[in-house]
From TrEMBL:
It holds the Pfam family Glyco_hydro_94. Keywords: Glycosyltransferase, Transferase. This is Cellobiose phosphorylase. It comes from the Bacteria. Residues 104-304 form the Glycosyl hydrolase 94 supersandwich domain. One of its GO terms (molecular function) is carbohydrate binding. Gene3D superfamilies: 1.50.10.10, Glycoside hydrolase, family 65, N-terminal domain. GO terms for biological process: carbohydrate metabolic process. InterPro entries: 6-hairpin_glycosidase_sf, 6hp_glycosidase-like_sf, Gal_mutarotase_sf_dom, GH65_N, GH94_catalytic, GH94_Enzymes, Glyco_hydrolase_94_b-supersand. Residues 318-457, 618-806 form the Glycosyl hydrolase 94 catalytic domain.
Length: 899
């Protein structure tokens, strides 16, 4: 195998012969909309959104099936054709033989360079691909060098098929939509402007112009053009053996036109003669704009080698500067991997959960869960900018505690559901509170809880069980009062409604109903009697955290009171008997949602903050008591774990079933994280997880054991092959949350085992077959799947910073409480992290002179820029917000000595 190597401190990497590994692709994107996937032979696609694909949409299997890719050809001495991307029939035939090109791929944040050396043609070529941060243009910068000892003549051809329409048309009217194409050649390339966007629900005029433009490094224009696929490949030809190249078709001049055919961004340059070691360079621009003047402006901006090289340098610097967190441990490869883990949340912000080859579901955008979890990484890298975003996000909450599930364009814009289905994911109320708590800890801004935000409103009502026939879309998408005014309530009010409605919506075992699914979307077939023990644990923890947030707000309040919507009173009744009475719970919830079915009163009632906190603690304590006894599974050999779910027949899904054991990781994660699991139970859980779920060779902890059943009364996941995706794969997100929970509870060695095994598998290219980063999951043979766009990256980053290195906020103060193990310190017995906090940049250096593990060392002393800091009696360092604010804007160094 060809191993992957890191080549600089920014995590840039190198791999030889990348075309010999299947399913590789690399993401490129701008901040303004263009999103590309690029393979080692420049396959993949490029798009703005679901309706606007420049290149033909691809799924993972298309990466080796589809030859409709970016290409650049060289015709040597008028006879021998060669592809600088390796995508020719001859080069593909020579793969895995002694005549295979020598190839090398190097890549970093938002750029990729492919270098090929041909033994047959005696030349070396490079293709650097990138997208400037603020432009919707993908740039290919190509260089060709003559490696022979004699002068050689080359004729260069650019060849990029232009798809130019909606992804829906890949199978829906593919040929018909080609008839909409209006194609013409410009002196610098090919432009395609379809007449309309084709949709049988309603055709619309098209404004987009798709283009492929090109020039030599000194700005010289192409000689002739091939504006349609048929013009370029010729009758009987293919993209890997185009007759226009092999038979030297003359092509068309500038200002030629074509219509009603598949478009081709192909053109030929004047021949060049290269002396030995002499180089020629070319620039290819692909993209889409709404006017030809915008395309001309872009061409003028990038039409020389010097301009492109400057843009490339700026692009690299921009994305490197976005990742302002650095780790230093005993293992440099792990530190480099963490660079990519910290970069992945940016990719998810730009790509959403779609638009990369494995992420071929949905129609783009992020979901509700993604919105909040992606904020976790932003809170660690740029916390000061997140408050406004969080406030806008609460605008997606409905007054009944459910929420819109799809994020529209821009912050604060929401869509009820991707597919127009009235569906409730029972975990959705969990994530806003988690994110808001981190925000308050990192910034100290408890007053955000008082910020007034509107509620989302559509026809879905009664927590998704009914339709509001009185709702008129003309009212907009905001909750209104009986007086037809848009209602706003505090963020605290939003949080209370979300948590309390979840608390009261229980099933037959007094556990929160599963509804359409929880975090595991594949548990989607137990909507009637399914219950999620896992997320009931999580909600119990949330209730405690919300109580703590309210106490913090109370400590800073002059009135010690808050105003809440009058209707919420029914959810805050101090009737402890109702906690164990399912019918009473249902009546309370029904009373509340019925009052909010269409409009609300808009009247507010004052509540004591301290009383609210007590109310929530009572609910959490009672919930945890039930969970610890009712849902605990005790094994015969010292094992033990929590049942995670009830199926649609009301049966617990985990335990000992004849000759096999059913165990799921999810229930253990949230039982530990929430505080539901006691220390003795955690010890048994870790032993059970190690025995039944852990497989080191494939990434660590599987999501579940093999249930040996389809379980149509639980979810589609059981139809997947065991070891694939949600059914027993090593699902990175839940594994990282397992690690986070263990660290949080002081089980550090166990937590590091989970993190380290994931990282080791990702870095083992022979096993994972992925570029650096954490994939969504590792399948049964250890291959990384659904790379880049996973919430696991945010949680991995969060865990490394706040738990492993122990650099975290607490009500705005900076806390240093490391949980590093001896094996994580370098040869000089140090480990360090650079991270922003309170608008300042800090490098925190831990010195462990006695090489002790966490639990054996204490903090002996600490200093900031040489000034001694106070060490708390419990062996942590706290730097007050006041002291942080007084520091200069320069970078600061904190040194912590462990003894």
């Amino acid at each position: 195998m060809y191993h992957l190597k890191f080549i600089d401190e920014h995590g840039s990497f190198l791999i030889e012969q990348p075309e010999n590994t299947s399913y590789l692709y690399f993401p490129l994107a701008s901040e303004t909309g263009l999103k590309s996937a690029v393979t080692p032979n420049l396959g993949g696609d490029a798009k703005i959104d679901q309706e606007t694909f420049l290149l033909e949409p691809v799924s993972s299997e298309d990466l080796h099936n589809n030859r409709s890719a970016r290409n650049f050809w060289l015709l040597k001495n008028g006879t021998d054709a060669y592809s600088v991307t390796g995508a020719s029939a001859d080069q593909e035939n020579s793969q895995f033989t002694a005549m295979q090109d020598e190839s090398r791929l190097t890549a970093g944040f938002m750029w990729q360079t492919l270098t090929r050396s041909s033994k047959i043609h005696k030349l070396t070529s490079t293709v650097t691909s990138f997208i400037p941060k603020d432009r919707n243009v993908e740039i290919m910068y190509i260089t060709v060098q003559n490696q022979s000892e004699v002068t050689q003549e080359f004729t260069a051809y650019a060849a990029v098929p232009i798809y130019g329409r909606s992804a829906d048309n890949i199978r829906d009217h593919r040929n018909v939509t080609s008839m909409l194409h209006r194609i013409r050649t410009d002196k610098n390339g090919v432009l395609v402007c379809p007449t309309m966007s084709f949709d049988e629900k309603g055709h619309r005029p098209n404004q987009h112009i798709y283009y492929v433009m090109g020039c030599t490094g000194d700005g010289s224009s192409p000689k002739s053009f091939y504006p349609t696929v048929e013009d370029f490949i010729g009758e009987g030809g293919t993209f890997t053996h185009p007759r226009a190249v092999y038979e030297q078709y003359p092509g068309y001049p500038a200002s030629a036109a074509a219509a009603g055919k598949e478009a081709m961004g192909a053109f030929r340059f004047d021949p060049v003669s290269l002396a030995p070691k002499e180089t020629a360079d070319y620039i290819i621009l692909i993209g889409m704009e709404d006017t030809e003047s915008e395309i001309l402006e872009l061409f003028e901006k990038y039409n020389t080698a010097g301009k492109v090289q400057k843009a490339f340098s700026d692009t690299k610097s921009y994305w490197q500067n976005q990742v302002n967190v650095n780790f230093h441990t005993n293992e440099s490869d792990f530190d480099h991997l963490m660079k990519w883990v910290c970069f992945q949340p940016f990719l998810r912000r730009l790509f959403g959960c779609s638009f990369l080859p494995h992420h071929d579901y949905g129609r783009g955008g992020r979901g509700w869960r993604d919105l909040w979890q992606d904020c976790l990484s932003l809170l660690l890298m740029d916390p000061e900018s997140v408050g406004h975003m969080i406030a806008l996000n609460y605008g997606g909450v409905r007054i009944d505690g459910t929420n819109a599930t799809i994020i529209g364009s821009g912050d604060g814009h929401f869509i009820a559901d991707r597919n127009g289905i009235a569906r409730v994911w029972m975990d959705h109320a969990l994530w806003p509170l988690m994110t808001t708590k981190l925000y308050i800890d990192q910034t100290g801004d408890a007053d955000i809880l008082n910020k007034q935000v509107s509620y989302f409103k559509d026809a879905q009502t009664m927590r998704g069980t009914d339709v509001d026939a009185m709702w008129n879309p003309e009212y907009g998408d905001r909750q209104r009062t009986a007086g037809n005014e848009i209602y706003t309530g505090s963020i605290l009010e939003h949080l209370l409604i979300q948590q309390l409605t979840a608390f009261y919506e229980t099933g037959d075992h007094n556990i929160c109903r599963l509804r359409g699914a929880d975090w595991n979307d594949a548990l989607d077939m137990a909507s009637e009697h399914g219950e999620s023990v896992a997320f009931t644990c999580a909600y119990a923890g949330n209730l405690l955290n919300l109580a703590a947030m309210i106490r913090l707000l109370d400590s800073r309040s002059s009135t010690h009171m808050t105003e809440l919507l009058e209707e919420i009173t029914v959810l805050l009744e101090n009737d402890t008997d109702a906690f164990d009475d399912i019918s009473k719970k249902h009546k309370i919830l029904s009373d509340y949602v019925s009052r909010c079915r269409h409009t609300i009163s808009g009247r507010r009632v004052k509540f004591s903050l301290s009383a609210l906190a007590v109310n929530l603690v009572q609910k959490a304590d009672r919930l945890m008591e039930r969970l610890r006894t009712q849902e605990w599974i005790e094994g015969p050999d010292g094992e033990g774990w929590f049942n995670s779910y009830y199926d649609d027949h009301g049966r617990a899904v985990e335990g000992f079933f004849g000759n096999h054991v059913r165990m799921m990781l999810t229930g253990q994660v949230f039982a530990i994280m929430s505080g539901t699991a006691e220390d003795g139970q955690i010890e048994k859980i870790t032993r059970s997880a190690d025995h039944y779920l852990y497989r080191r060779a494939i990434g660590g902890y599987r999501l579940n054991t093999d249930f040996h059943e389809l379980k149509f009364d639980m979810g589609r996941m059981f139809g997947f092959a065991y070891g694939e995706k949600e059914n027993g794969a090593v699902f990175s997100h839940m594994t990282v949350m397992y690690a986070n929970a263990l660290y949080h509870r002081g089980f550090v060695k166990e937590g590091w085992k989970a993190l380290r095994t994931l990282a080791d598998t990702a870095l083992d290219f022979d096993t994972s077959h992925i570029y650096p980063g954490i994939p969504e999951y590792f399948r049964s043979d250890g291959r990384g799947m659904y790379h880049y766009l996973t919430g696991a990256a945010s949680w991995f980053m969060l865990t490394m910073i706040t738990e492993v290195f122990g650099v975290r906020g607490e009500a705005g103060d900076l806390i240093l409480y490391p949980k590093l193990l001896a094996c994580q310190f370098d040869a000089d017995k140090t480990a360090s992290i650079s991270v922003p906090f309170a608008g300042k940049n800090f490098t925190v250096i831990y010195r462990n002179i006695n090489c002790k593990d966490f639990g054996a060392y204490i903090i002996d002393s600490a200093s900031c820029d040489g000034t001694e800091l106070t060490v708390n009696e419990d062996s942590f360092v706290s730097i007050s917000r006041k002291m942080l604010t007084a520091l200069s804007d320069d970078a600061h160094t904190i040194t912590v000595n462990l003894l």
